[in-house]
Amino acid sequence: MAGPSALPRKNGELLFDEAWEGRVFGLATAMHAGQQFAWDEFRDRLIEEIAEADAHGDDSGYYERWLAAFERLLVEKGLLTQEELSARLAAFESGERYDADGRRKRAAAQATIITSAPIATTSISGSAGTR
Q1: pLDDT digit string, tens, across residues 32-90
Q2: What is the DSSP string of 20-79?
Q3: Sign, Cα dihedral of 90, 73, 4, 26
Q4: What is the dihedral angle through the alpha carbons of 75, 45, 1, 34, rounded to the nearest 10 degrees?
Q5: 84/124 Cα distance (integer angstroms)
Q6: Residue 130: left if φ>0, alpha if ψ -120 to 50, beta else—which one?
Q7: CATH number of 17-130
């Protein structure tokens, strides 16, 4: 892609400032590879999102526009409803997460459990302990 929809690069490599940017890039490219939509469909929405942001003086970043275009395309293609998308966003913002079995968990509580658990260690002499 060239022009306003061109991917940010540094020394020819894709440039992601934050982990979520790489994730949304991967989701969009994987769904395209899985033939969920044509790349031109996504590109056209991305160009529209960038133009709209520029027209309104929106200083959002490239991948924020990428995400908006991706979300819009998912809804337009019927892969998600706007309600499903809104519910997932609300859950994400609240820290609510679900495990593989669909059980609700709180990300903050999970992080506390993980970081406060003692770590088993073994010294060079072979004696075990915890930190």
Answers
A1: 999 999 999 999 999 999 999 999 999 888 999 999 999 999 999 999 999 999 988 88
A2: HHHHHHHHHHHHHHTTSS-HHHHHHHHHHHHHHHHHTT----HHHHHHHHHHHHHHHTTS
A3: positive
A4: 20
A5: 53
A6: beta
A7: 1.10.472.20
Q: How many residues are present in the chain?
A: 131
Q: Are 30 and 37 in contact (CB under 8 A)?
A: no
Among all chains, which residue has been given the structure tokens 């002499």?
125
CB atoms within 10 A of CB 23: 13
Question: Taking the CB of residue 51, how many other CB atoms lie within 10 A of it?
Answer: 13
- Within 10 Å of residue 68's Cβ, how many Cβ atoms? 19
User: What's the first-to-final CA gap in the chain, in angstroms?
Assistant: 51
In the predicted structure, residue 2 carries a pLDDT above the cut 60: no
